[in-house]
Amino acid sequence: MAKVHPNVAVPESPAGAVVEEERQQPTVLTVWRKSLLFNCDGFTVFDATGGLAFRVDRYGSSSYGRRRRRAAEDVVLMDAAGKPLLTVRRKIKLSLSLGEHWVLYEGDAGAAGAKPLLSVRRHHVGLHRRASDKTLAHITPLGCSPSGADAAAYVVEGSYGRRSCAVRDARGGGGAAVAEVRRKESVGDDVFRLVVSDRRMGAALSMGVVIALDQMFGGASSRTSLLPRSWSA
Fold first, then answer.
1. Which of 34, 47, 48, 167 meets the CB 3.0–4.6 Å disulfide criterion with 53?
2. Cα separation of 232 and 223, whole Å?
3. Element (H, E) at 23
4. What is the pLDDT of residue 50?
């Protein structure tokens, strides 16, 4: 039976090369689209040694769970100890040009002064989509952008449904991916790898983007959405 989390052997390196190797080595996480808690939906994320890195726990399909869902509009990404790291909040703009998007907040968005970090907006296909257009979503920094600068800093390209997509710099140029979702062999769609190659995004923010993508492109085979809609003008 295939393991959910990897068991990676770390080769020995010369002492002088350790710092350089750590700087270049990407963070590889294994994402399991399942909560470890009974009757909960969510995600469980393991690091390269099989240790618990992140978790998302949401009450499931029971009537009590549905009441809890309606009362809480956010999904919170926690560390292994249950400390809130990010909150993912789903919104729908009344403007058709903006449409549905997700906002990532630092820590618990329910706390006073919670800082928005990123907006993840589904790519608007339009009537005539080119076959070469692989764009899924646009990611825009919030709160620290220069005045009037609302262009997305990153784009997501590929196919989330096939567990093969990448976050890239929106300026183009065919550079290396900042973060990637990759299929994990022989374990189905509910278990996949998240490879974070750039410190600008980081593992927690990358996982927040994955949660947003799962809401956009999870498809009919996915379980009930983790995020109720929040309407905003």
1. 47
2. 25
3. helix 18-24
4. 95
